[in-house]
Write the structure tokens for this entry.
Amino acid sequence: MARRLARFRQRFGIAAQKVSVRSDLPWYWRWLGILVVLGAAFALSVWMYETGRRFAGFDRRELQGQVSELRRQDARVRSELQDTRAELEKLRAESAASGSRLAIERSAQHKLAEQIRVLERDNARLREELATFESLLSSEARDSRPLSIHRFAVQPDVLPGEYRYRLLLITGSGRREQQFQGRLELVISLTEGGKNAMMVIPEGKGDAAAAFRLSFKYFHRVEGTFRVSPKAKLKTVQARIYEGKATQTRATANATVE
């Protein structure tokens, strides 16, 4: 009896051998269970994170929608800006073309106005000459002078120091059947640097002197230009007419600079 009790204690008592209980479960199932648990934990953490952001006023999908809307608006604004730039370039081109046309029209208007002024001056000169001719015809029987100078005028021209002159030469009744041959000479009185001076045009012989030769029968209009120093100031200009090679003048006339 005592021996049986000792054996029972050895098998089930404190001094009994340790026994381990293991479940008969393969290792891959255990890893699969671990992965499922980890996935569930990760999904739970993501859900908690998104829920926390929504509660805090931050929604990722809403933000992405706003970003997409802003991108669409940016694309639309860029397209409108490109169209506006193209329209601006078109308007600039049209403005440049209009400016060119306007400049051409203004230039044409200036030219027409200048032509009108020239024509008006010519018309006034022709009227003066017509009045002169009429007065000469009315007194032709009493006029025995061989040559006379009419409408002698001098005025500044375009360039500084340049002047334009014009005069009308008419033969008297006693010269109707003869050809007048002679030359024109201009004697210019001027001041420069506080000193008086005098010029005679033309100087010497040559092409310049040939331009002042005269040959006409009834009347002759003379017009031309001469130049002096731009710093000089003209006082008077005298026209002298010589016949042939004579040194004595046949007619003279003085003109004050206009």
The mean pLDDT is 78.
